[in-house]
Design brief:
CATH architecture of the largest domain in chain A: 2-Layer Sandwich
Number of domains of chain B: 2
CATH superfamily of the largest domain in chain B: Beta-grasp domain
Strand content of chain B: 15-25%
Order of helices and strands of chain B: EEHEEHEHHHH
Radius of gyration of chain A: 19 Å
Number of helices of chain A: 12
Number of helices of chain B: 6
Number of strands of chain A: 14
Number of strands of chain B: 5
Largest sheet of chain B: 5 strands, mixed
Order of helices and strands of chain A: EHEHEHEEHHHHHEEHEEEEEEEHHH
Number of domains of chain A: 3
Oligomer: heterodimer
Strand order of the largest sheet of chain A: 4-5-10-6-7
Strand order of the largest sheet of chain B: 2-1-5-3-4
Distance between the termini of chain B: 69 Å
Radius of gyration of chain B: 17 Å
CATH class of the largest domain in chain B: Alpha Beta
Shape of chain B: globular
CATH topology of the largest domain in chain B: Ubiquitin-like (UB roll)
Strand content of chain A: 25-35%
Shape of chain A: globular
Largest interface: A-B, 30 and 35 residues
Bound molecules: flavin-adenine dinucleotide, FE2/S2 (inorganic) cluster
Helix content of chain A: 25-40%
CATH topology of the largest domain in chain A: Uridine Diphospho-n-acetylenolpyruvylglucosamine Reductase, domain 3
């Protein structure tokens, strides 16, 4: 059934949101959780999504938190990207986030929307992949905390009616040496040719990518090759490229060959920055 | 194809220090309500995707693109549109610096610049660049727009010295 109009709900608690989701689903409203809403509004206008009801989770207290608590940084899914940049508890996250869209749009785009959205860059997830964060999910079976690597594989794998409430990051990761870089073919805003976020822990580089493949990722095989200090950097990069998950994007932002060329050079910049090599 | 009857909700919108009561469809954007229901046509429709910034308004002190906000989300918040600025220094600076040609992007740019100058007394070059990148000017008046912003900042800094 198509609805001529869309209903809007603003629950005040996690349970209320989940109850609403299943009630609305039951009456065939195809409900969607709504956070910043920028993607939902745009996709609905272009008829790319169908929904009869949106559940705005911005006013749920757990989703609005951004604070250090008991050696963990708790990052609510509904905080805007500019808010987390201004507070700057996690500098790598702030720097990566600053590359998304533009400042005014980031006043509205939220962390949860960026990570759960259909637009596949999801750049804000990269720092959390590197910091082995936990994700807090709410669903019909309650609230769960899971390692991000268990639930994020290209996208955040959610059960029906489940939503992202928070990300929890150990405080010790927040101040590690890091580097974030976004390369575009032109202009200073817009989608990436490649975005790379890097964190150095215990002398080892951790690296996550967006814009290279049609999903963001961190690959332990790629990291192993890049950290193989027995080999010269060019060789390490060549070996690492063999382990990239496919396909490499070949689109209007840049051809596959150009992306790989930029990747090689950018990895060298990262080595210079974090390894002094 | 079955269509449900239109459901409308009533919201109070605090715009330019006036309270407007509007009956809106929940999925109407703030831009469409401003222009089509309230007659505030200063905010311009451009891309409707959040890319161009022609529709920028100020909400609780920050710039937002009104094409990617639902009007219902703006209820209870303090909104300023271009109609709410009355000879603000940035408006004069735009005229003095010839910071527009066709003028279509101007209301959006002015709202963004006004929010910037209101938030920061003396913003860094990087901050100015980061904020201004949110708007597109087809006529490429970028240099003049930057000059206009810098002139307001300069005047504010000088007047504080006195
Ligand atoms: C102008 C513009 C430029 C952009 N540029 C970039 C860019 O450079 N890089 C980049 O990475 N992205 C970019 N994006 C994409 C943007 O980050 C995503 O579209 C993101 O979804 C928007 O966040 P939101 O909070 O508005 O999401 P919403 O529109 O609220 O939601 C998007 C989707 O995520 C789901 N969702 C939202 N929150 C949750 C949650 N907590 N739990 C479960 N599901 C949830 C919604 O149901 C919906 O399906 C850009 C978007 C715009 C408008
Ligand atoms: S019309 Fe809103 S950003 Fe272009
Ligand atoms: S003055 Fe014409 S678009 Fe900016």
């Amino acid at each position: 059934m198509l609805t001529a109009d869309i209903e809007y709900y603003q629950p005040k608690s996690l349970n209320e949101a989940i109850d609403l989701f299943f009630q609305l689903k039951h009456v065939n409203k195809q409900p969607l959780y709504y956070s910043g809403g920028t993607e939902i509004i745009t996709f609905r206008r272009l008829n790319l999504i169908q929904t009869g009801a949106i559940i705005d989770i911005k006013n749920i207290p757990e989703c609005k938190i951004f604070e250090l608590n008991d050696h963990f940084l708790i990052t609510g899914a509904s905080i805007s990207l500019t808010y987390l940049e201004e507070k700057n508890f996690f500098p790598l996250l702030s720097k990566t986030s600053r590359g998304v869209a533009d400042f005014t749009a980031r006043n509205k785009i939220t962390l949860g929307g960026n990570i759960c959205g259909q637009i596949f860059y999801r750049e804000a997830v990269l720092p959390f992949l590197l910091a082995d964060s936990n994700v807090i999910l709410a669903g019909y079976d309650g609230v769960k905390s899971l390692p991000i690597h268990m639930v994020f594989n290209q996208t955040l794998n959610l059960n029906e009616g489940q939503f992202l409430v928070q990300l929890q990051t150990e405080e010790s990761y927040l101040s590690l040496p890091h580097y974030a870089i976004k390369k575009r073919q032109q202009w200073d805003t817009g989608y990436p040719l490649i975005t790379i976020a890097t964190l150095k822990k215990d002398g080892q580089l951790r690296i996550a990518f967006s814009g290279l493949c049609p999903f963001p990722f961190r690959s332990l095989e790629v990291e192993k090759e890049l950290n193989n200090r027995q080999l010269p950097i060019d060789e390490r990069i060549m070996n690492a490229i063999k382990y990239l998950p496919g396909p490499i994007l070949n689109d209007v932002e840049g051809s596959k060959e150009y992306r790989l060329f930029v990747l090689r050079n950018t990895l060298k910049d990262i080595f210079r920055e974090l390894e002094g090599e | 194809m079955a269509f449900l009857p239109l459901n409308k909700i009533s919201v109070n919108l605090d715009i330019n220090d006036e309270i407007y009561q509007a009956e809106i469809r929940p999925f109407s954007t703030l831009l469409s309500i401003l222009r089509l229901e309230l007659g505030l046509t200063g905010s311009k429709p451009g891309c409707l995707n959040g890319d161009c910034g022609a529709c920028t308004i100020i909400m609780d002190g920050l710039p937002y693109k009104s094409c990617i906000i639902l009007a219902v989300e703006a209820a209870g918040r303090k909104i300023t549109t271009i109609e709410g600025l009355k000879n603000a220094p940035i408006q004069t600076a735009f005229i003095e610096n010839f910071a527009f040609q066709c003028g279509y992007c101007t209301p959006g740019f002015i709202m963004n610049c006004h929010a910037l100058i209101s938030k920061y007394q003396n913003p860094s070059k990087e901050t100015i660049k980061e904020w201004l990148e949110s708007n597109i000017c087809r006529c490429t008046s970028y240099e003049e727009i930057e000059k206009a912003v810098l002139s307001v900042i300069h005047n504010e800094v000088e007047s504080r010295k006195e």
